[in-house]
Design brief:
- 23% of the residues lie in helices and 30% in strands.
- It folds into two domains: 163 residues, no CATH class; 95 residues, no CATH class.
- A hairpin with a 2-residue loop joins strand 9 and strand 10.
- The strands form three sheets. Strands 1, 2, 4, 5, 7, 8, 9 and 10 form an eight-stranded mixed β-sheet that branches. A four-stranded antiparallel β-sheet has the order 11-14-12-13. It has a two-stranded antiparallel ribbon with strand order 3-6.
- The chain is α+β, with helices and mostly antiparallel strands and 278 residues long.
């Protein structure tokens, strides 16, 4: 589970993107932020969370996995919402936004889709990479394409939830005790913030190694809030390991950022080089 998913309970409710005007305003505000300027007055900030409803008619689904009771989107699915004016693209969301679905749930989904009563509600954050604009539009095209990090998704028949999912539900396939290799990566919404924290990579790696000595299957992410004149604050923590979070806070204690920024530190376990992940 990503730390941003945990942050859903700490931040404001997701902002709906329902109309072409909503989509255009969001993309313009994000473009201004990426250019280093001020976002649109009164518009949601790049740190906000959003939701979009995607009509399911015509959405391809992968074959239902009866053994795992799992249903996911097909690889050719195009997620278009806000009246067709916004396409959300999630390059890091492998697996097609899967949900748990027994046979009865799967059959209900298919029936609702065929009758035009099914929609996929996606809660997301704009995918921010060191100031690169996450929203693009081909000249002459109707729709903006927004690169996102999905935080939760839910199939609904009208207003009634049928099935829901979230990222990374589960434990690593291999633990450190089984030879898994620890990896620490840093992502931020501001280049200055990510660069500052990446300079502490050796300390962060030592924090993770010490944590794995106690909990060999530990993974997750921490979100730090950096500010111009305040000690970094832990905004979210999906690893839920007090010693790891204390160590990270210590490594970042003297860091500051020119503007309020969120930095996500991912702690992952990669399968051993000689192993095949389950």
């Amino acid at each position: 589970m990503t730390a941003l998913l945990l942050a859903l309970s700490l931040l404001a409710q997701p902002i709906p993107v329902e109309t072409p005007e909503d989509a255009a305003r969001l993309c313009e505000s994000l473009a201004r932020w990426a250019r280093g300027g001020e976002e649109l007055p009164g518009a949601p900030t790049h740190l906000a969370l959003y939701e979009v409803w995607v009509p399911a008619r015509g959405l391809p689904l992968a074959a239902w996995d009866e053994e795992e009771e799992r249903l996911a989107l097909g690889p050719a699915a195009v997620l278009s919402g806000a009246g067709g004016s916004l396409r959300v693209w999630a390059p890091d969301a492998g697996g097609g936004l899967p949900v748990r679905a027994d046979r009865a749930t799967m059959e209900r989904l298919l029936s609702a889709r065929a009758e035009g009563r099914l929609a996929l509600r996606i809660t997301f954050a704009p995918r921010l990479e060191d100031g690169e604009p996450p929203c693009t539009r081909i000249p002459g095209a109707r729709a903006h394409t927004l690169e996102v990090t999905p935080l939760a998704w839910e199939w609904r028949e009208g207003e009634e939830p049928i099935a829901s999912g979230a990222p990374d539900d589960g434990r690593p396939a291999f633990s450190a005790a089984q030879g898994a290799r620890p990896r620490v990566t840093v992502r931020a919404d501001q280049a200055s913030a990510s660069g500052a924290l990446r300079s502490r990579a050796p300390e962060l790696e030592r924090c993770y190694e010490a944590a794995l000595a106690r909990r060999p299957d530990l993974d997750g992410a921490l979100v730090l809030e950096l500010a111009p004149a305040a000690v970094p604050r832990l905004a979210a923590d999906s690893a839920q390991d007090e010693q790891l979070s204390d160590c990270v806070r210590g490594a970042a204690a003297d860091l500051r950022a020119p503007a309020l920024s969120l930095v996500t530190i991912h702690f992952d376990l990669e399968p051993p080089a000689t192993a095949q992940a389950r």
